[in-house]
Amino acid sequence: MKINSPDLEEIRFLLVHFRFLSEGQHNLRFQSQPHNVQFQSPVRLLFHSIHMRLTPREVEKLMLHNAGYLAQKRLARGLRLNHTEAVALIATQILEFVHDGDKSVAELMDVGRQLLGRRQVLPSVPHLLDSVQVEGTFPDGTKLITVHNPISCENGNLDLALHGSFLPVPSLEKFPIIEGGKIPGEFIFGNGHILLNLGREAVKIKVTNNGDRPIQVVGSHYHFIEVNPCLIFDRRKSYGMRLNIPAGTATRFEPGDAKSITLVRIGGNQVIKGGNGIADNLTNDSNVKTVMESVIARGFGNSTDTSTSVIVEGSPLASKISREAYANMYGPTVGDKIRLGDTDLFAQVEKDFAVYGDECVFGGGKVVRDGMGQAAGYSAADCLDTVITNALIIDYTGIYKADIGIKGGSVSSLGKAGNPDVMNGVFDSMIIGVSTEVIAGEGMIVTAGAIDCHVHFICPQLAYEAIASGITTMIGGGTGPADGTRATT
């Protein structure tokens, strides 16, 4: 009989498993022994779960239940819960109520907001916990339950929080009011506001939707001359222009509605690509005639309008945004401060490589699209492999916000990434192309990873523990779970 390698692996595992059972030493699976490596892998966990007919998702829910029950025991003792415990308790109880089968999704969303109050959690938790999402299986299928603002009252309903646990419900007197408290990651904003697309030519035009359905998600960096044929406006005036709205946002045009909008000149090399292919070229006066002939021949709505200006401070066509709104969308900028965790340390942004109005972001009107924030016609060799956008970098060289370019597996550049055909200030080494992966870094801090220079390489799981604690480089020695490795680096 021929036995393939997976079958041999299973037989070997069974033999080891039953040897432990016969020796009465099966608890060694959870001790720090060489055998521990064999029994901690996902394959082994899956093997055990198959006998109980558990899917991987159900195995994870058992881990969630353990964390939730631990949180319930601490709550029953009158201890305030941290962020992890609060999430685990809320998610666990929601799933238990789903299993009871007498509540709808809407009712469970409401129950989730009643379980814990501000006095039952640590002071920082309400600021960190915006929502809790968990999937539950109802009689008519699996549904996602989303609890928004789960810590929204002074005191939670502890009877509901401990329902089904058979733990004693503590008195509310065990949870005294704590005044104040630090807000983790708190922003302190600089003075004034942010003016978008400063110094660019702008036009104000009237746009009418002549169609019978809404035209939505016209993004900030979409070449406006290329928009839906049912929109009627002065396309000549819109040549080489885009919406003067925050990067990554969008504008919607309802059927039959007419509205006035402000457009601004695109930046960079001013080359239009993509869209409906009306103006697929360099934007200049010599190409206007060809572009307008294409507009008319293809039946795109067109009219005439007159009004033009240049965006300056105080201009009626200027688009400005508060520093708070800007930080919430793109991260803090020059002059803003951010609290590091819940400490008394604040980091102040010293430099921002972003061009206000030309940030590379996703969102409802995502910028990183073909011919917009993503360049077209560039080879992969000329573009980044990966870019991390709008990250706050804390480094020995300074504190600044920038895009991070990755090429060939290493950080290759810091600065402004994007499409040089339509954006100002894009670094030559930081072009976003069709093959560039994008990681959103808005609201994130990036700093150098730690180095551990005394490591016993006893098992592969060291790498997971290292990454989880911020260690990116390990220096040491060893060959695995052997006595020599345990004693020597």
Question: What can you tell me about this protein's structure?
Answer:
The protein is globular and about 80 Å long. With 489 residues, it is of the alpha+beta class. Helix 4 (56-76) packs across helix 5 and helix 5 (83-100) packs antiparallel against helix 6. Residues 8-40 have low confidence and may be disordered. Strands 15, 16, 17, 18, 19 and 20 form a six-stranded mixed beta sheet that branches. Strands 5, 7, 8, 10 and 11 form a five-stranded antiparallel beta sheet that branches. Strands 3-13-14 form a three-stranded antiparallel beta sheet, with no helix packed on it. It has helices spanning 5-23, 35-39, 42-51, 56-76, 83-100, 105-112, 125-128, 158-161, 288-297, 323-330, 461-468, 483-487, and strands at residues 131-138, 141-148, 187-188, 193-196, 201-209, 215-219, 231-232, 241-243, 250-253, 258-265, 308-310, 319-322, 337-339, 346-348, 351-352, 386-395, 398-407, 410-415, 437-440, 445-446, 450-456, 471-477. It has four domains: 56-169, Urease, subunit A, CATH 3.30.280; 202-311, Urease, subunit B, CATH 2.10.150.10; 320-446, Urease, subunit C, domain 1 (Roll), CATH 2.30.40.10; 450-487, no CATH class.
